[in-house]
């Protein structure tokens, strides 16, 4: 089965202990190598959150450490022909929480192969309007499809929440993205019904893609 993308959640890129930070950077590079072995096209890269809720370490110093770490991993990925796709998280202390954060981060990293992940339900939770995705023209490397109730993170099959998929998918297309979309699922109500949960998500995602002509 083809593998289009891998995921690397990196929670130690801003650690004040150099040994811990270096470990996480090397770990991320190892996942890049694994993605290369799988002949994937990109790596979903999740930089994580500020430590201690801005109360102990200067936020700007943490930001610079994460930018530097992403540059190191990004250059490693470029050598292997891979893109890093930075994910926006709808959580209070995430490094990339708003569209402005994403633009600032991509500008600071300043590597052609470091782009954005558009997780549609995350953008909806943060009330980033679909038309704002034009600001990411040519800078999208990956798309996640999942639903939510508009207030709580859920990663539900499309149709179980109120995410306006059609508007977002059209905006993603207009921003120049023509790659694969990943169905992201968590927390099935009954784990014994996992097959049905996945089948529902696949079917509803396919309908959403076809409805706006992006399948």
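^ structure tokens above, recovered residues below v
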């Amino acid at each position: 089965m083809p593998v289009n993308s891998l995921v690397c959640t990196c929670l130690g890129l801003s650690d004040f202990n150099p040994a811990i930070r270096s470990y996480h950077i090397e770990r991320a590079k190892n996942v890049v190598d694994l993605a290369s072995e799988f002949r994937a096209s990109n790596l979903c890269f999740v930089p994580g959150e500020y430590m201690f809720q801005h109360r102990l370490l200067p936020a700007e110093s943490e930001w610079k450490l994460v930018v530097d770490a992403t540059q190191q991993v990004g250059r490693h990925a470029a050598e292997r022909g891979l893109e890093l796709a930075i994910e926006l998280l709808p959580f209070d202390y995430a490094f990339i929480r708003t569209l402005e954060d994403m633009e600032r981060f991509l500008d600071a990293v300043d590597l052609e192969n470091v782009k954005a992940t558009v997780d549609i339900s995350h953008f909806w939770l943060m009330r980033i309007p679909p038309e704002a995705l034009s600001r990411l023209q040519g800078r999208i490397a990956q798309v996640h499809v999942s639903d939510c109730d508009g207030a709580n993170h859920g990663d539900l099959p499309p149709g179980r929440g109120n995410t306006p998929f059609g508007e977002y998918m059209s905006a993603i297309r207009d921003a120049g993205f023509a790659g694969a979309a990943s169905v992201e699922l968590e927390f099935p109500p009954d784990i014994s019904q996992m097959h049905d949960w996945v089948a529902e998500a696949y079917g509803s995602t396919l309908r959403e893609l076809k409805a706006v002509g992006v399948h």
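The first strand starts at residue 5 and ends at 9.
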